Amino acid sequence: MKQPMSDSTLNKLDRKTFTNGMKKLEYAFIIANPLAKETLKVYYEMLSYCDDDKFSRAIDDIIRNEQWFPTISKLLEYLPKKESKQLSVRDLTS
User: Fold this and answer.
1) Does the pLDDT of residue 91 top 50, yes or no?
2) What is the pLDDT of residues 59-81, one digit of tens each?
3) Which residues have a Cβ under 8 Å from the Cβ of 69 and sit 6 or more positions away?
4) Among 48, 53, 41, 40, which Cα is nearest to 76's?
5) Among 91, 62, 88, 67, residue whose Cα is nearest residue 77
6) Phi and psi of 93, rounded to 5°?
């Protein structure tokens, strides 16, 4: 039986989708050496809040519109803002 998705797994970027998108960027921008594992970890850490469809669309948009391989901040410009939970006074005092 399939496990229901928790809030923490909803709208989370799948590692395979992420890896495929980053490879697509490497090929499109003719990166001679693949990105280091550590670099990919940082990219994933910063982008993992996004869902697969939005990430894939952002990759395609970047390839169409940008001249250079994107930094994390450039990728974030093409993705929706990360939703942050608003804390109320009640949250802080309970």
Assistant:
1) yes
2) 999 999 999 999 999 999 999 98
3) 25, 26, 29, 31
4) 48
5) 62
6) -100, -5
Please give the structure tokens belonging to residue 81: 């803002």
Q: In this structure, what token pair is assigned to residue 65?
A: 């519109």
Q: Place 86 in a pLDDT band, splitting at 50, 70 and 90.
A: low
Q: In CATH, what is the architecture of 15-77?
A: Orthogonal Bundle (1.10)
Six-digit token string for 48: 């993992």
User: 21 to each of 2, 13, 36, 66, how far by Cα in Å?
Assistant: 27, 11, 15, 15
CA dist 58 and 72 (Å) reads: 12
Distance between CA atoms of residues 26 and 28, nearest Å:
6
Q: Which two tokens stand for residue 26?
A: 């490497």
pLDDT digits (tens, 9 = 90+) for 21-63: 999 999 999 998 999 999 999 999 999 999 999 999 999 999 9
